[in-house]
Amino acid sequence: MFLATCPFLMAQRAPDREIVDIRLEGYATDVTLPAGTTAMTWLLLVFLTLLCIGAMFKNARRTHLD
């Protein structure tokens, strides 16, 4: 029964309807982020990379008494 109804249901779907993101509906103002650059993300990535690499060069024999 299920396999017989699947092609029928797919044929009933309108292919030209607009796809709406329902998560963004109902807000008084525009809630999407403006399309900008990713420069700050790259700078944060570089900073965190340098921080992690710097931790690898820490002296392992150092104590808390230094």
In oligomeric terms, what are we looking at? single chain
By DSSP, the count of extended strands is: 0
Helices and strands, in order, run as HH
What low-confidence regions span 5 or more consecutive residues with pLDDT below 50?
none
Cα-atom Rg, whole angstroms?
A: 27 Å
What fraction of residues sit in β-strands? under 5%
Largest sheet, described in full?
Answer: none
Morphology: elongated
What share of the residues lie within helices? 40-55%
How far is the N terminus from the C terminus?
A: 77 Å
Structural class: mainly alpha
Helix count equals 2
User: Residue-averaged pLDDT, rounded?
Assistant: 78
Keywords:
66 residues; mainly alpha; 2 helices; 0% strand
